[in-house]
Amino acid sequence: MIGATRGAELIAPPSVPWEIGNALSAMLRRRRVSEEEVLKAIGEFERIPLALVDVELDESLRLASQMGIYAYDAYLIRCALRYRCPLLTLDRRLAQHAGRLGAQLVEVGE
User: 56 in a domain, yes or no?
Assistant: First the structure.
């Protein structure tokens, strides 16, 4: 996945850092990672040159309602659509929903 981002300008909705935090806290709670590993992961995430851009809450929630998806997924799709940029994800369901709405996708291997 890292190779797919080389030379690219990366943007994301402002929710992405919170999503990362939520995923890491869930892993901590399940004792899948240590606090030290979480702190290292946060440090690595913060090194990613990621510009956080606004997405419209109303449009995002409209997408969430229409597609039957979580708001966090809708923010990502709305970001791709609004800024006409490809969506980079390993989440197949998210990619399918985004593709149905005409979003460009970056194909990455797992």
Answer: yes
For the whole model, what pTM was predicted?
0.87
Is residue 63 a part of any domain in this protein?
Answer: yes
CATH number of the domain to which 19 belongs: 3.40.50.1010
What's residue 3's pLDDT?
Answer: 65
- Write 52-59 long-range contacts (CB < 8 A, 24+): 52/11, 52/12, 52/13, 52/14, 52/16, 52/17, 53/11, 53/12, 53/13, 53/14, 53/79, 53/83, 54/13, 54/14, 55/13, 55/79, 55/82, 56/82
* Range(s) of the domain holding residue 86: 9-106
Residue 67 lies in a domain: yes
Query: Which string of DSSP letters, residue by residue, matches 36-94?
Result: HHHHHHHHHHHTS-EEE----HHHHHHHHHHHT--HHHHHHHHHHHHTT--EE-S-HHH
